[in-house]
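quick one before i forget lol
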Amino acid sequence: MFVDGPQVTPLEVLEDSRCPMRAQCVWAGHVRIRATVHLGTGDRTYELTSGKPIQVADGSFELVEVKPAMTSDGPIEPDDYRFGFRFMGGL
């Protein structure tokens, strides 16, 4: 049973095109990751894009938060990323 939704294991950041802080960009950009979602029926691997919900089990699942913020100082180290997810529905 999952009280707050399924467990998620981020595997890889595939793309991080967010606009750096204090920069003026034409678009905000997005983050795309590969993650394993642990469901009661087994594990499945998905590609998630920030702000774009996907259908998982009998609900929707979305990457809603990515930290740290992008800066112009250079790329973010993979181990420094932290993600927030939202699951709406039931398992």
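fyi Residues 61 and 87 are 4 Å apart (CA to CA).
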